[in-house]
Amino acid sequence: MSDDTIRLVTIGRMLRRRWRLLTVVAVLGAVVGYGTSLLFPPRYTTSASVLLPGQWEERELLTQAEIATSSVVVDRAASTLGWPGVSGGELRDRVSAKAADGNIIKISGTADTPERARQLSDQVAQQFITFAARLAGDNTDPESAAGPEDLRKMVTQTNRRITDLAEAADPGRTVESVQARTELAKLRTALQEAVKKLDEADPTTNRANMVVMGPAARPTGEAAPTRTQFIVAGALLFFLIAVIGHLAAARASRRPRTAPEIAAALGSTLLGTVDVPGERGAHRPEGRGPRSRIRRLLGLDIRWDLPTPRTSGDEASRQLRYRRVCAHLRDQLPGPRRLLVVVPEGDEVARRAAGQLVAEAEGDPSPASSSRAYPMLRVVGISVSQPMVPDRGTESGALVVLSAGSRTAEELADVAEACADAGHEVVGTVVVGTVRARPARSAGPPRDAATPALTVRGHAPGGSV
């Protein structure tokens, strides 16, 4: 498990090197989103507003909103609409109500067509008003309702009695009669105002007078989630899954990244690290066929988690590293020997470095008969999935050359086991890194760095490689 912190530069590098794959994944997600939208028919939503006159508390408005979406109201609306195959239970999932400012209940209806959505909202609002008015009348206490009604009857009788007294009084002949008629008129006016205030204060009368504030508007667009939202959501979801999958795979990678870890996985000694100037396609493994073409097209043939190559020194400094590796190899061996340079197939960076090592060994300034001469090297490529190394013949030992972070510990152990099966001792490991080359300095004639022809495959008693 890699403990490296995932930084923005890592995500940016992944987007640059895997943009083709991420684009294909996003398009695939959009197609899946489009297919999902076909399973959900388009929906249209509109609202009808119902005004509740009078003074209402907030909890009372919430109660009225619950009543508007109750099964009684919705079932009556479904019965009135009479849509084939649509019951009240189905409509309850399509109807909602909420209390708005100003004692207004907004009733929303959702249907498969704009016209049906408008009809549903209007019908539910109408049934709500009817049911609320009936509910207000049915819930009135008989004893509390009898008091105001008896009072009205008494006021009516009193008005009649006042009229009779006024007619019986002497019509304006005396001062007393005029005063009596004036007092009776004031009493009648006061009684009429009292009855009017009583009617206005009656909650049953006020709260039963709910009104619909116009018909519901015809919806002009689909309700969420629309087909476009499904497509965008599918593309975004698949894109995020691909990004998270790449990051999770990088975190869980078991590939040794440092030179000591690689040498420990091979069970050998680290002879050193060398650099190879980065080239376009240097990390691309060779391969033909439809599968290889698809991998190259999607950018899967190169590692995305490899860091950007750093800038190295000049050609002379890089050649010095190769000479030091050859010197370490010479010092470690008891005498001049022939060695196999084992390179995993598909690791082009390691193959270029192995060729440079062979060139340095052949250009040894020491005499060939000297015990201090460089060993003679021959490069062989092996398959990591089924490693097979030539049996021991003229060569007696193996030098493993590979790039950092290219193989897992299990694969490296298989390579070491294949070398042991062929009778070769892994005398050392060379780890190769990619760098950005600087322009060569004019300090002297550059050493010939031509890469000789490499032995990629050969036949040996142990099998073909």
Report on this model:
Residues 438-465 are annotated as: Disordered. Its main location: membrane. This is Wzz/FepE/Etk N-terminal domain-containing protein. By secondary structure, the protein is α/β, with parallel strands linked by helices. The protein folds into three domains: 8-40 and 225-251, no CATH class; 41-224, EIF_2_alpha (Alpha-Beta Plaits), CATH 3.30.70.1130; 259-464, no CATH class. Helices cover 49% and strands 15% of the residues. The chain is built from 15 helices and twelve strands. Strands 5, 6, 7, 8, 9 and 10 form a six-stranded parallel β-sheet that branches. Strand 9, helix 15 (409-421) and strand 10 (426-436) form a beta-alpha-beta unit. Helix 7 (142-168) runs antiparallel to helix 8 and helix 13 crosses helix 14. The protein is rod-shaped. The two termini are 32 Å apart.
Labels describing this entry:
about 475 residues, alpha/beta, Alpha-Beta Plaits, 3 domains, 6-stranded parallel sheet, 4-stranded antiparallel sheet, 15 helices, 12 strands, disordered C terminus, membrane, LPS_length_determ_N
